[in-house]
Amino acid sequence: MTREQLDFPEGFLWGTATAAHQIEGGNWNNDWWAWEHDPASPCAEPSGDACDSWNRWEEDVALLGDLGLGTYRFSAEWSRIEPEDGEWSTATVDHYRRQCEALLARGIEPAVTCHHFTTPRWLAARGGWEDPASADRFAAFCGRLAGELGDVVRRVCTINEPNIVATMGWLLGVFPPGKSDHDLRLRVNDVFVDAHRKAVDAIRGAAPGLPVGLTLSMTEYQAVEGGESRRERMLREMEDVFLEATDGDDFVGVQVYSRMRLGPKGILPAEAGVPVLDMGYEYWPQALEACLRRAWSVTGGRVPLLVTENGIGTTDDTQRIRFVREALEGVLRCLADGLDVRGYVYWSLLDNFEWAFGYRPRFGLVAVDRQTFAREPKPSAAWFASVARANALVGS
Fold first, then answer.
1. In whole angstroms, what is the distance from residue 253 CA to residue 245 CA?
2. C-alpha gyration radius of the chain
3. 230 vs 83, 96, 166, 293, 346, CA distance in Å?
């Protein structure tokens, strides 16, 4: 690529992301805390104090400021804000307000996710996302939260990866509630779609002009050895039903980590010669470009795209830099072809609790000592900061 081809458009948004349950610590009032403490669950370990970011959020904001990033995507924990149905914690909302104000003071746009994998215990006890009524309860939460924080938030993501929550929780049984029922999984998909649409309306009603969208886990599904029909079904159930639900949104959050090869009998193992990462999938940075192009195609180019997660779990920080560079090269090719990609948000700011995998995978630009919670930026953080400041793919 020439120097001109390495430049991103003016105003391209650079950031990083976290989620409340993965970094705050002590989020005991949701379904995930119950799940990770169940001896029958596949969780490697409980989240515990996580990164203690509930108390150390100012350190995290300072790190973001030092990196010179333009946005920070984080989630507001529903189970803290509404610990019981209809019981609203003003103190918790004020906590998130202070965080947003501190970000804005450093020139960083707060992007708040309303549901990032965790559901309040009281809602889960009533059937959770199997119950169509949950869509209305979620929309009410989103509307009230937007009404109280809309002046200090610059972007709202309704639901993080509803396809993953539905598939892992109701088909594969490795997320709460640990069920394996294909038809039930499809019903949960429908409830999530309804919840998103109602939440968008509620947020717009409470905070007119506040950009709102959905974030979706996307994978470069590749058909191998007659796996075409399985690929089409996978795309329909995992992605298309949600991409089609984003019509009229302000953005689609595209979140990509790897590819998946599908044969006629199901998922194929990693291809010979392709490294396998700590999460069990292949090192495949080119998946981001493929998924951006597919999201643009399925939505008919009507909704701007924003990379709201992309990254790599590895202890090799040189590999992290190489992965992100190769992924960003794909973003540049998409931009050159006219796709409206508004920004790139790396997952994650911190090494954190990676759900059933526990603390072993290291996605962070910043290391966190598990005993002292001390933060230490990695070389990849300095590299990513240099790219963001130059608004161009520079450096090694």
1. 13
2. 20
3. 41, 43, 18, 20, 30
Please report the pLDDT score of residue 257 as a whole number: 98
DSSP designation for 116: S
Are the C-beta atoms of 380 and 317 separated by less than 8 Å? Answer: yes
Q: For the residues of 293-324, what is the DSSP string, one character each?
A: HHHHHHTTT-S-EEEEEE----S-HHHHHHHH
Q: Give the closest residue to 221 by CA, choosing from 266, 280, 168, 160.
A: 266
Neighbours of 229 (CB within 10 A): 11
What angle separates helix 287-298 from helix 317-336, to the nearest 10 degrees? 30
Domains of the chain in start order, with CATH, are 4-390 (3.20.20.80)
- Helix 379-390 to helix 53-67 angle (10° resolution) is 50
Structure tokens at 275: 């490294």
Residue 30's SS3 state is strand
Global confidence as pTM: 0.97
Q: Is the dihedral of CA 317, 322, 327, 331 positive or negative?
A: positive
The whole-number mean pLDDT for each consecutive block of 10 residues of the chain, a chain of 396 residues, reads 79 98 98 98 98 98 98 98 98 98 98 99 98 98 98 98 98 98 98 98 98 98 96 97 98 98 96 96 98 98 98 98 98 98 98 98 98 98 98 85
Neighbours of 64 (CB within 10 A): 23
